[in-house]
Amino acid sequence: MEQQYFVNVLQILDVATERGAWKGAEIEAIALVRKQTMEQIKSLAEDSQEEAQVESITKKIGEK
Fold it and tell me: Which is the most buried residue in 10, 16, 25, 28, by most CB within 10 A?
């Protein structure tokens, strides 16, 4: 759920940019927010992959 929130924020930023919602002086700040949002999405994706791997290993160990 948290990851979906950040994906939605990213989509809002991209749509607003495409529609010309930002003034020139604001673009740098928007780019920074977009970069931080992308980093958060990547971090959450990595964490969820690690959790899936741990669950998989745990299940295999439990089967023995």
Answer: 10
